[in-house]
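Why predict the complex rather than its parts? Because the way molecules touch one another can change local conformation, and only a joint prediction can capture that. The input here totals 686 residues.
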Amino acid sequence: MTQENAGPEKGELILRLRGVGKQFGAVTALEDIELDVHAGEVVALVGDNGAGKSTLVKVLAGVHQPTSGTIEYFGKQVLLDTPAAALEMGIATVFQDLALCENLDVVANLFLGHEISPWRMDEVQMEVRAWTLLQELAARIPSVREPIASLSGGQRQTVAIARSLLLDPHIIMLDEPTAALGVAQTAEVLNLIERVRDRGHGVILISHNMEDVRAVADRIVVLRLGKNNGVFTAETSHQELVSAITGASENSVSRRAARKLEEVGEDQ
Amino acid sequence: MTQNTQKSTPPPQLDRADARVRHDAGLAGALRGFVDQIRSGDLGMLPVVLGLLLISIVFSTLNPIFLAPNNLVNLLFDAAAVGLIALGVVCVLLLGEIDLSIGSMSGLASAMTGVLWVNSGVPLPITIIAVMLTGALVGLLFGFLRNKFEMPSFVATLAGLLALLGLQLYILGPTGSINMPFSSPLVRFGQILIMPAWVSYFVAIIPGALIVYGSMRTNQRRSAANLSSGGMSVAVAKAAILTVALIFAVFYLEQGRGVPWMFGVFVLFVVFLNYALTRTKWGRSMFAVGGNAEAARRSGINVQRIRLSAFVVCSTFAALGGVFAAARLASASQQAGTGDVNLNAIAAAVIGGTSLFGGRGSAWSALLGVLVIMAISNGLTLLNLSSSLRYMITGAVLAIAVIVDSLARRSRASHGRA
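Output of the joint prediction:
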């Protein structure tokens, strides 16, 4: 639906962040962040609580404005000053708090802000597209004419992801997409992420679940206390990732692992 | 994903692929769905129907004149002005905002009509346009205060109530009241003009015909798109009930003077706003902002512009309602728009089923609610009760309406219906 529907070449640089910072009063949430996203790759953004992942997502979604640094989109410096601007450019976001209107039904939520024929909404066509999209995602939604309030957490997540795909964006950002999902639905979302990637979109995946991240990510960008703390690949060991996230090779996770190892050794 | 492999000869309809959902079909199904809806707190128009029934029984036993055709015709004449104001209130309530200045705005509008049209000789159409533009301007101001300074609309419009009342008194000057010529089209519109009988009957048939035609078309398009179609029985039953009720209403009113044009114009505005709220992107955005403003913002909706539009629509309708009120009373006075006009309009919207908490409601609620409010006020007047008692009773009715709204909301929340 955006202007460059042909889509970028695979591997082409879509998004480049340089020196991006964000301050909330005296608190520095982000400092000197660098991030590249290419077409057809999944970039995972990991970090501990308070590492600045969600802030970075909000900056890219146009919800917050960065206090410093530049954002380049297809080589051109851009200003993401409103969510509408980000959406129009082709950056779609699924927020952790899903931001759905509970009083509206599934179709209305999917098409919110992008209704087909604004002066005489085409409910039939919207419903058909809604069902098609939801079936592509193998979504288990009982009825698209029920208000969101009657859906479960996992169903809401599915609706939110479906909504972000509706506009055929270049980049889709998923903030903790699998946190509320069951086993099967998590697998479906991971499949979906790969399919979106194979279609040539860039995917930014924020997750606490290392297993999910390593399953789909091409690159893993670690944030720590609002700063870059290394870029890894899916082959990186769990331990290495954890130490990058927590900032030390000697950390509570490694200590726990070592203790367990000792206990096992003693038992034998 | 693996869906394609399962597609055997008759492909399931797009929305019927999931076996876990009960799909109500036909009349019995519609009835069952309706009962479920009421139980979960989605009351819809039920309180209004019950209220009207109760009011008719009580007042007609106290004074049989209440149900006399000509009294009901008068009631419809009275309802148009407040109804128009309530129509605007629906828009601001949908966003979870409120406008307390509507009474003063209508008073200012009637004063402007008197001064411009009667005293200064400005042609009537230009006067009405000027009045409505003033209303729009006032709405813009409220919206601006809400958007730029995050001023609660409650406070902004409370200030507006006083300021606009002051302006009304100022432009009326020391005389305090302006009488309008009885032979003028405006006053005739407000007091005499009645639809010819054939027009009334014709109009009474239209809604039923539209329901049948609309659902036929929708069903066609839905089956063409491989979606389930509900069948015609429900639509036909609905249309039949509605048509019979409307024809009876018109027949009854024709025993008296007939259906006032003024009321007809009001209903036309209701239909228009209903279309705007349910079928356009603007309407969808209104519901979205009222339901979850942050979600609406992130969907790319310009929340501030939607808010602005709601306040503008509200004040414009209030201004037009003021013109109607002036036409009804054949005068513009210092009392116009004061007293219970404000609360009657807000109460009408709430009683009709528009939630004070935003995100729920419809244009029809203004029509139904104003009938309830006007029936109460008319019945109390027939009983020769003083305005002190009338105010108290109307206040109690408003309180009950809000309690019903709150309880229904809580019940909806626990039934997962928002």
